[in-house]
Predict the structure.
Amino acid sequence: MKYFFLLLTLLSFKLYCQNLEPVNFDGLVEIEEWQDFPSFDISYEIDPGNNIAPPYKTKAYVTYSKTHMYVGFNAEVPKNQLRSAIRNRDQVFQDDRVAMCIDTFGDGRYMICLGSNANNIQFDLKFATDDIDTSYDVNYENKTQLTEKGYDVELKIPFSAYQFKNKPELNWKIAFFRTSFTNGKESLSQNYPIDRNNPCFACQVSSEIQFKNINPELRFNLIPYIYSGVQGEKNQNSILYGKPEFDIGVSGRADLSYATSIEYTINPDFSQVEADVSQIDVNATFALFYPERRPYFNEGADLVNSELSTVYTRMINQPILSTKLIHQDEKQRIYWLAAYDTKTAYIIGGENKSYSGEGNENFSNILRYQRNYDKGSNIGALVTNRILKGGGSDHTIGLSGRHQFLESYTINFELNKSITNEPNNDWIKDEGFIKNRSLKLDGESYSGDAFFLNLRRTTVNWESSLGYEQLSPLYRTPLGFSIQNASKNIFFSQNYIYYGDRFIQRATIGADLGWQFNYNNLQKNGGIQIQAELVMKKNLETTAEFNYQFNNEFEGFNPKNLNDFAWFIGYSPSEIVRLRFAFGMGDQIGYNLDELALGDELNFRTFNSFQLSDKFTISPIIRYSELRSKVDRSLYYKGYISRINFSYQFNRDFSVRLVTEYDDFDKTFFSQPLFKWNPNPFTLFYIGGNIGYSRQEIKKRFTSESAQFYLKFQYLIGN
């Protein structure tokens, strides 16, 4: 028996040594504790300045254990200049904050950035060559402490958060960032100077960190959930509720290796905690775009992002089963997603408008391959398939690439082919034809193509772009967002950028020229847009745009010499107040009128935020639009949408929120209360509701039309 206890003691000691933390993870970065580890100074302000000295000193340190990376920050700032509050995760972009970014492959394909504000609120994002994905999530730990000179931050990051090829010795590119405020001026600084002649910012990271003989755990987790809700509809003068609904499901992830992971979801609940902000569509003829915010689709989103919107994962609407595999190594990346969806969102893009309908089940598939080179260059192939239950299918196949050459030049291209076999059903109600093919889904088969080419030149003070895009009339993207086809577009832009260090921090002036033709070589529109932007001290910024169109053809109606003007101003004098206002006026076609007409449009929008305490925020939004006749000044339409968000954050995990919105166009009103507990990116509990009202003109008051109450609990099991 004594040998058993001796063995148990030795095993426990071995496990203790393996998990021994190299520093005391308490949020306080003491120099004596970190001084023997690699350190980095954040000493270059890159925005709005151009490699000038930052306003405050920031030092970062890095060390590691077998399973985790540890990062420490000493961030100096006077107490009266520190902006920070207790917020929801990923909502710190108005705060003083620090971040560490890693490129495990060193070729500039992307960087994963993790950080915190001074109140211990996490944020994470994926910084790709041409995109920043703020919805990206990583499960890591952080602690912070306020100090006499500012604040300290410590991050504890599992190596399993990254994909890489494991070797006895690893050399990863690493970068450090700091956002601070001085008398209202926002400043972004980093630990290396930026060469603005090189458009690949991630490729310019010069600092490296070396890890030897790490042994991270492969990720394996389960995220089960349970959902319950009840809905009610108006029945005479009251709301009649149905039977409560219950649903369960599970999702999870398993690492097959350090370079390959597989995710899955069974009967997922893809309802969104944060409701989409309503958009004004009274004069829109094309489907409206809403961003993807469902966590399951975050990983790999940058890999399937494209200029032609070939993949739009919100087209996968209500799947009951989906799997996703992602593989990344030093030279290549592979993305494969398959789903069995219970609802088909069917969109047909046209020359002047898009047509949509909703169908039943389908099987969806997305396969992406990319070969990577230095400086963010790559070439790849993309295939999407959607096979409809009861007959019919849609497919796209494409090639794309990016190449950087002569340091300042970048060329992007994308070439797609689509093959459509229509089902026989009544999902599309509209009448009409596109290139002798009926809009109705009557079993026709056809194909289409799309092409995009863009050449860019980027220097310190100049940005130039020349491009061409075409989409054939019968081009379709079953899992994408191609809503306007039968078009050929030529565009050119030129911008000049000035960097100052006085009242004007940065100034930009530029022009965009564009021409659009249909496939009969009829010029749809063409014109020039001139814009100017100023970024000034006191966190004041403004933009002005003037647009002149030679013509704007729509279904035979073709007004000439159209003008419009837009102006934006933003001001954040303190942490308490953040103000944004935009205004526009000019010539506009009334597309959805009984008879097409050119009118005078006026619109404005204001979206503000008031931080009344470290925990309480009010965010009001108002958007107004009107169109008047040029002949007699009568109104074609007028209305507004107002929205206000009340948010109280008890601590970093628990919050309460109330959203109210009024749509003057439809005379409807809704309120959405929500209580949320969110201790990590994947564990979530919320309980809330949605109450809808409409205005009865006879009684001149609002009455409730519908109500919904719901709760959900999901929990991360594993790492």
Observations:
- Confidence is low (pLDDT under 50) at residues 3-18.
